[in-house]
Amino acid sequence: MRKFLALLLFLLPTTVYASDLSSWAKEDYAAASEHGLLPFTVAVNNLQEEITREEFCELAVRLYAGLSGETLSEPDIYPFEDSDSIVMAQAYQLGIIAGKNNNMADPLGSITRQELAKMLVNTLKVADIPLKRDLSFETATKSFHDASEVAPWATTDIATALHYGFISGFSETQLAPLFGATREQAVAIINRTYQKFSKSQSTYELPRILSHTADSILNADLNLSWTPIPEALEYSIIIKDGNFFPFTMTATENTEITIDTSDFKTGGAYTAIVGVSYPDGSESFSIPLDFHYLYRTKMTSKPRTEKELRVFPEGDAFTTKEQADAYMVEVTVDVWNMKSDGTKYPAKRTICVNSALAEDVKEIFRIIYEHPSQFPIKSVGGYSWRNTALGKVSQHSYGTCIDINPDENYYCYTNGTAITGSHWLPGEDPYSITPDGIVVSAFAEYGWDWGGNWNNGRNSVIDYMHFTFLGK
Question: H helices of 335-468, where?
């Protein structure tokens, strides 16, 4: 009999703010958005992570435009070798930034508090905002024990920023000039600076999410509607996942939308934001709002494989940690470990796996242990209810995957850039898994795939530590 998908979604009331927007920052976020100071590049990302240099340039350029009343044009030059960003070129042309050594902008690098202070003061200067000039750095920083960490080029700007309250101490005795700043902190600083010096403040209406509903019991679609903005050219709907990563983004000219949630991770929190694009190029954004899955079962309209039927009840993947926990068992296996001098010795490892695979796992590790190569296993992991480093549901949540020596068998992009772990050096590092070695062949004998074979043109990642029964 066909099993239909049932989904109940619950959206928190509009007085509750998403957890990547701190309660202290909500007023600054809303005000910055109302005045067109909040860019899409900041709103779409985790607000509690450090802001990048390019993102702060965009905030600074918007602050300049708001204070000066000028409309910025295409920059005459793009001075940086590592960036073709329009806002970074505009910031350079205005004199807000000078770049780093060798004509580098480091657009994705974090910005320190002293760099932020300098860029902010530069922005005010080029906007012709009169600032007090004869401020004493020693007086401004006398209560901070780490004032000596401020670079000589930043002392005047730090004194100015402290005097006007653009920044404050990290604590009563710590200035922390080399610390980074989060996106929500940077938005608050930009907004408060704008409020202090702006003479005429243009405003943009913020959309407000009105309703939410599952389309019907037959599918998982999420319907959202929001207040109309008469001047809007287009609306952008941003859904962030539980790690506040932009999970999906959609554009529409309507004030409601249906979003397919078939790829959503189960049993977690999500954040919805509605953005507005205006004819003058400005943007405004709704207050972030959380919604949660309370119940979800997966549609079984497509045939289940023999492997899925073996490890899942009725072939349907687990949807909650509580459900998965009930199907997991721990197995203890013999392995070889290795001392720093290369001497190998017997040891034991305990792995939590899907109960349907427990006996197979014991046999796999028996084969590895009894092989003359004595492959050393210092670390092994199995069941874990979690998402992957790339934000997707992890097959470890089903107890159908095993990771071996993760540091020496890294998870990486196909260009070699690490995601987790540090390297893969088969034949050089004894903990690294060799493609033609006993570990790969033992798992293959029982139908498990190796993530080291994913470099086949269909995947953008390789996972050398990873063995999977379901092939994912």
Answer: 358-370, 438-445
CB neighbour list of residue 282: distance below 8 Å, 6 or more residues apart: 36, 204
Write out the DSSP string of 221-253.
-EEEEE---TT-SEEEEEEE-TT--EEEEEEES
pLDDT 10s digits, 187-224: 999 999 999 999 877 789 999 988 655 433 334 567 78
Which residue blocks in 271-395 are alpha helix, DSSP H?
306-311, 321-325, 358-370
- From CA 386, how far away is CA 393, in angstroms rounded? 7
**Residues 399, 466: Cα–Cα separation, whole Å:** 12
pTM (two decimals): 0.60
DSSP assignment string, 33-71: HHTT---HHHHTS-TTSBPBHHHHHHHHHHHHHHHH-PP
pLDDT tens, position by position, 251-287: 899 999 887 766 665 546 778 899 999 998 889 999 9
